[in-house]
């Protein structure tokens, strides 16, 4: 089923993101973790590509996820790819029956000698347009940046870039992580103002390890609100307490987002499900999900 159809059903769609582990044993453990999420009835699970994993790795894991009876979406990055490689990859996904594709540029490699292929894609919008022009019929999902893209902090210009991606063929937008809901609601207002009408799904990364989140936000430029930062600093040396702080904050975020009209929540799990499961259960007790 196409993800865009899920958001047309009226209720909030809860989804999760994982990445392929480094070893076969790790992947088997991850599949068991994902299978344990089935009772939560996730709308879909997306699989991103990390590190040195081959381009096919998300496709392989999504194939296994779909065999469990859960819809999946495979990430495709284009910064290192030629048009021929993306065309072949689309054929691979079609052959596996995958209907949902998360189409993003990807991070520019840190290698100073890196040069993007001459017949490749400079931006995600170029790949989105390329895939659409080939007529494959995928549901295309793209990224949004409530606090601005790390390479462009001009919020209005960011929205114009988002609109260009939607005009090129995006069906759904999932945002980068954020910890202040005001950033999401302002982002959504800017997007609607320029005519973006596709679902704008907030991406939430529960804090389970404060030093790790410090590193991630330092790289992405995302802000951690002072009250949350203070609460985490107080429990810096107590991992269990930090997880509880993260769960409480994310539960509050999700509650307010859903009550404010967000079409769902997409959890960035970092391949760990206990925190997201706890947040889901909190929301279910409040009657916000799982009807």
CATH topology term:
TIM Barrel
| General form | globular
- Percent of residues in helices: 40-55%
What distance separates the N and C termini?
20 Å
Mean of all residue-level pLDDT scores: 93
What class would the helix/strand composition place it in?
A: alpha/beta
The number of strands is 8
Strand content: 5-15%
Extract low-pLDDT stretches: none
Radius of gyration: 18 Å
Q: Largest sheet at a glance?
A: 8 strands, parallel, barrel
Number of helices: 11
Question: Quick summary of this structure?
Answer:
The protein is α/β, with parallel strands linked by helices and 291 residues long. Helices cover 45% and strands 15% of the residues.
Topology:
Elements lengths: L2 H4 L6 E6 L5 H13 L7 E4 L9 H11 L4 E6 L5 H13 L4 E5 L19 H10 L5 E6 L10 H14 L3 E6 L3 H13 L6 E5 L5 H11 L5 H9 L4 H21 L4 E5 L5 H12 L6
Helix pairs in contact: 5-6, 10-11
Describe the structure.
The chain is an alpha/beta fold. It has one domain (3-285): Alpha-Beta Barrel (TIM Barrel), CATH 3.20.20.220. It contains eleven helices and eight strands. The chain has helices at 3-6, 24-36, 57-67, 83-95, 124-133, 155-168, 181-193, 210-220, 226-234, 239-259, 274-285, and strands at residues 13-18, 44-47, 72-77, 100-104, 139-144, 172-177, 200-204, 264-268. The chain has an eight-stranded parallel barrel, surrounded by four helices. The chain is globular, with a radius of gyration of 18 Å. 44% of the residues are buried. The model has no long low-confidence stretch (mean pLDDT 93).
């Amino acid at each position: 089923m196409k993800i865009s159809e899920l958001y047309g059903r009226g209720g909030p769609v809860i989804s999760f993101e994982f990445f392929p582990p480094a070893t076969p044993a790790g992947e088997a453990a991850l599949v068991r973790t994902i299978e344990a999420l089935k009772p939560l009835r996730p709308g879909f699970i997306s699989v991103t590509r990390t590190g040195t994993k081959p381009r096919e790795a998300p496709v392989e894991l999504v194939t296994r996820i779909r065999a469990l009876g859960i819809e999946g979406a495979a990430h495709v990055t284009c910064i290192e790819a030629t048009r021929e490689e993306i065309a072949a990859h689309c054929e691979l996904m079609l052959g596996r029956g995958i209907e949902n594709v998360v189409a993003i540029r990807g991070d520019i490699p840190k290698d100073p000698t890196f040069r993007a292929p001459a017949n490749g894609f400079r931006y995600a919008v170029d790949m989105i347009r390329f895939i659409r022009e080939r007529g494959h019929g995928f549901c295309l999902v793209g990224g949004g940046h409530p606090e601005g893209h790390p390479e462009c902090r001009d919020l209005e210009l960011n929205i114009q870039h988002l609109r260009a991606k939607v005009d090129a063929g995006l069906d759904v937008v999932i945002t980068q992580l954020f910890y202040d809901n005001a950033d999401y609601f302002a982002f959504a207002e800017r997007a609607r103002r320029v005519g973006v009408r596709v679902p704008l799904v907030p991406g939430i990364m529960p804090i389970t390890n404060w030093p790790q989140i410090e590193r991630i936000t330092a790289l992405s430029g995302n802000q951690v609100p002072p009250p949350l930062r203070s609460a985490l600093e107080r429990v810096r040396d107590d991992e269990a307490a930090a997880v509880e702080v993260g769960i409480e904050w994310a539960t509050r975020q999700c509650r307010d987002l859903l009550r404010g009209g967000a079409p769902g929540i997409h959890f960035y799990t970092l391949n760990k499900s206990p925190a997201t499961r706890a947040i889901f259960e909190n929301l279910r007790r409040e009657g916000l999900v799982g009807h």
